[in-house]
Amino acid sequence: MTVVRLMRIRRNVIDSIKGFLRRRGFADRTPFKGFLRDARGVIHVGAHVGQERERYSQYRLNVLWVEPLPEHFAMLERNIAPFPGQRAIQCLVTDKDDAEYAFHVTSNAGGSSSILPLDMHKDIWPEVTTTRTITLPSKTLPTALREHDVDASAYDVLVMDTQGSELLVLMGAAPLLQGFRYIKAEAADFEAYTGCCQLSQVESYLASHGFREHARNVIAQHPGGGRYFDIVFKRTDP
Description:
Layout: H1 3-24, H2 31-34, E1 41-45, H3 53-58, E2 62-67, H4 70-80, E3 86-90, E4 92-93, E5 100-106, H5 121-124, E6 130-139, H6 141-147, E7 157-160, H7 166-172, E8 182-188, H8 199-207, E9 211-221, E10 227-235
Parallel strand pairs: 1-2, 1-7, 2-3, 4-6, 7-8
Antiparallel strand pairs: 5-6, 8-10, 9-10
Helix pairs in contact: 7-8
């Protein structure tokens, strides 16, 4: 048996072990990564094209993806098709039903698109620009779920990546918040987008609904000292 073949077998064995550990939750023991281990399902608002689909699948989670951009939604549906228990709805989620928003589509394959204009975001990622603006209608999360016959009780984790409008999503979802055990949000402590919610506002609002910070991860730093975070909040009241 050649050395190359032995190394290939060794790599396959290691990959199999890692996959087994991930599926059982042993690879995600840190608070930030491990909160999905005991979850029933995830509502992911701001899906883009479903980059986290494989990770959710490792935990055998039911997933509802919510994405407003038509071109992203079409790719999202193709991407999640192989994963049982994952479905998607096309919707812009805010705190208002039937409102119309200017939605700013960005040059990084739409990854920074938002209802809010870019602001200090440009100081960290100067290559990201707005390429076009379209008008989209909005729904609150309860309305979106009801209109698509989604049983909210099947999901106990809310993930938001809506580029500065996370507080609007939370405010519109207020009737549903007590059904979530964990809420994960991307938030900055500076004005990344004009008029965006900042970390302190998200923390305050979730605290008023019985959630406290569970874990955080710094994902970017502003030259002036501000930071971007991924933060997981855990419901503390019964």
